[in-house]
Amino acid sequence: MYSKILIAIDPEDDGEGKRALEEGVRLLSEGGELHLASVFSPGGAGFFPHVTEDAPAEKEAEVRGTLSLLARKYLPLNQNATLHVVAGSAGEKLVALAGNICVDLMILVSRGATGRWPLRRATVEHVSVNAPCAVLVLPALVKEPEDDGEGR
């Protein structure tokens, strides 16, 4: 059992969030602290100056709202969690956050190189090598192929 756990969550993946939260609650010692973190890219127009993205404050508020909803949806009623939403490079920010709040365990879900986020594999590797704590990497969920209604 761990007394302080940091769970890295992609707020756009409900299944990943549910799975990571369940595992975190299972491994958390009684009276322990649970921390949920999401890292977003602060963006910028980059090569496409005509494309405008949300302002960083708006993006942070959106990610925080989604993360809060996931916590309310999947955490037991008697379990509190501290939410952390930061902008920047996911691997670097997660390692820094783990060190700053002195966690015993960090939990991530790996999608490998085939997921929507091609850098996910690099993030998991960076965190696993550089984290100041134990790291649990949960394997990706395998999604069932959708039924097209024709029995194929």
Strand order of the largest sheet: 3-2-1-4-5
> SS-based structural class?
alpha/beta
**What number is the mean pLDDT?**
83
Tell me about the biggest sheet?
5 strands, parallel
* DSSP helical segment count: 4
Radius of gyration, in Å, reads: 16 Å
**Spans of 5+ residues with little confidence (pLDDT < 50)?**
45-52
Overall morphology: globular
Order of helices and strands: EHEHEHEHE
Helix-residue proportion = 25-40%
Total count of strands: 5
Strand portion, in percent?
15-25%
Cα end-to-end separation: 45 Å
What does this structure look like?
This protein has 152 residues and is of the alpha/beta class. The termini are far apart. It has helices spanning 14-27, 56-74, 90-101, 120-130, and strands at 2-8, 28-40, 82-87, 105-109, 134-138. Helix 1 (14-27) crosses helix 2 and helix 3 (90-101) runs parallel beside helix 4. Helix content is 37%, strand content 24%. The longest helix is centred in the middle third of the chain and has 19 residues, at 56-74. Mean pLDDT is 83; it is low at 45-52. A five-stranded parallel sheet has the order 3-2-1-4-5, sandwiched between helices.
